[in-house]
Specification:
Two copies of one chain form a homodimer.
Chain A lengths: L1 E5 L6 H13 L3 E6 L3 E4 L5 E6 L10 E4 L4 H5 L3 H12 L3 E5 L3 H7 L6 E2 L6 H6 L3 E2 L4 E4 L2 E4 L5 H13 L1
Amino acid sequence: MKALIISGHNFEDSELLVPYYRFLEEGIEVQIASSQAGVMRGKHGYEVEAMALAAVDGKEYDLMILPGGKAPAVLRRDEVVLNLVRYFVTAGKTVAAICHGPLILVAAGVLAKKTATCHCAVAKELQRAGAHYLDQSVVVDGNLITARMPSDLPGFMREIIRRCQG
Amino acid sequence: MKALIISGHNFEDSELLVPYYRFLEEGIEVQIASSQAGVMRGKHGYEVEAMALAAVDGKEYDLMILPGGKAPAVLRRDEVVLNLVRYFVTAGKTVAAICHGPLILVAAGVLAKKTATCHCAVAKELQRAGAHYLDQSVVVDGNLITARMPSDLPGFMREIIRRCQG
């Protein structure tokens, strides 16, 4: 089992750190990747090292996490990210996005007729993408898991880990 | 089951956030407390709300977490913290400290003849307190669980959660 966390500068620190360490606790290998290799800094200041997405082989991974913060607004314009998301969704691999992370799902065009949630500030973008938006802590629809904000992390991680163990 | 996280300004962000959300994922109630009530800021910049330790009733809690960062160097001079640590240890409740967190155990005088670990920078303080120091990811000795640094969080949380489930 191997997880891929995709984010960039100004990620929401808790939404990257909590899944990262949770996977390792569970014995799941985890890799952080971004548009470019190097150190990226969370919006609160935490720094983590990322590998370049161009060097990521999607086939090696079983699930993808898209944390929130300000990073998704930039990542959604990166075709490498969007193609990887489309590949994961098509291959039936789990894609879990929280807060502003679902904006990347919108840009990848994978939300039509799907039930999902996100940060309330971008709920309209989900709806315009054809998603059935729910203001609910965690929403699971097929291989998509979405949540709204850091305080939803406990339920978000519960669903993700359940998926990994199932 | 109820957990108490004790820290203060300049806590190591990951060592507070990861246990906090992990407890909630597990359905364990968790409270953050500090010498004074209010917002405290991690050394990387994350802000969390703490209640005053003076208002904490130790009897309500089953385990205590002492994250690292720069907070323990201040907390170890707070007699309210030290008395609470002594009460937990005497009552056989789990006390888990990581990084510079074990400095609080040193000050509370609960490490004599105990096997423990901590950040390498303060290993000598543990030894002077009569502890048998091990440079090992996670050390469990009775109801004490200690670890060295953020990268030890996976094993640290594994031991803590196992204790909660046991």
